[in-house]
Predict the structure.
Amino acid sequence: MTTLFAETLKNLRAEKGLSQTQLGKRMFVNNSTVTRWENGSRLPDAAMIARLSRVLEVDVNTLLYAAAESEESPNIIMVDDNRILLTDSLAVLEDVLPNAAITGFIWPAEAIEYARANRIALAILDIELGKTSGLDLCRALLEINPRTNVVYLTAYPDYSLDAWDTEACGFMLKPLTPEGVRRQLQKLRYPFPRGGATP
């Protein structure tokens, strides 16, 4: 149940004096969609949350925070074009965050497509991704959802200064370790419920 988002949306709608039907018309969705958002059975995607913020005249971060806090299983992605390192790193993440929905990607374009359809709590990105830079991927992910925590994973510490210019919140050297992940989880700009993460 996505209780916090449901209650936040209900309160904001009531403050504007709108019925569910009226909100649905302004959002160009049917009434049943608004009902599902408000009974906690469904969360809108990032694009709908941005539209809701405009219709309700509220800071989008208010809604994004409520949505993030409502998710029972945070979405975590990792992008690395080295299949072996990606497989090993995903195993580390699954050990540290057993209740998270963890997805790995080799191709940056697939990660962006996934981020458009799912709210990403944490993105761990290799900096060198073939022809694509992890720095550019970070910017694209933050454009989709500014509250995505981005942590870089690389074998080259020389990239660290460039990395900070992208508003990432962390930097780890390869290989990924449980201890390194736990340290980064303590430093996230936008903490999220970890639902059973190993302390």
In short: The first helix runs from residue 3 to 15. The chain has two domains: 3-70, 75-185. Residues 3-70 form a domain with the 434 Repressor (Amino-terminal Domain) fold (CATH 1.10.260.40). The longest strand covers residues 120-126.
